[in-house]
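task queued by scheduler; priority normal; single chain, no ligands, no partner chains; default sampling; output format set to structure tokens
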Amino acid sequence: MCASTSCYTIRAPYQDHHTCTCIHLRFYSCYVGVTLVREYQIESLSSPSVIIVGSGRCGTSTLGKLCHEQLGICMGHSLKMGDKVNPEGYYEDLVSHAMVRAMANHKDPGPYTPIVYLQVMNHQHRDCLAWGVKDPWFLYLPIQVLQRLTPKLCIVALRDVEATITSWYKMFKASYPGAEITPQITAHYKQLTETRQEMCNEIIKIWPNTIYIDFTERIEEDELAKMIRNGLAMAQPNRRQE
């Protein structure tokens, strides 16, 4: 937290060169890296057009890429880079991820509230017609936080549990070459997958404008794009709870 009580510092994990953004809640300066962007006042806050969630290793990155590159939905300006596990990229905005992780800490979310989150993300996407976010950590947010974010459309990526665990194995082997997959590791990935899938099933109770996309069988990009467009077209207007 900065010296001023209305100024917060958000540090994006993973890649330090994306560093921090400083926010003053009303008139504020936004720094991306070390560059002063400008000061301005946000008169109204828009919620994300799309929020993408899933258990992990289930197609969320594919959906994020499709939204970002083909559907005109900006998924962020400081995206987590691809690696040997996910070479085409994760399409997770690092600044959003830092705030969502903080808000998921029920005991100490720090200065991060849904309004602060929307302030920052609206500034990040001030030149975008539509914006979205992809992050499994939305599943861990308290209900009262989720109720204040209300995306136009939530997309839940699903996949057969065994297929998901197999993908987790591939990620593990790529990250730790030569390491043995023990029964404990298998149990961990199975529990993680099943727990997150249960969390996904709870999302519809909070965000009624939700569609499910099952990646157990291969789906062509054109079909995915059609499903997302139809979901956005059919979504009922949401009222964000203040």
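post-processing summary
- Residues 15 and 107 are 26 Å apart (CA to CA).
- Residues 183-206 form the longest helix (24 residues).
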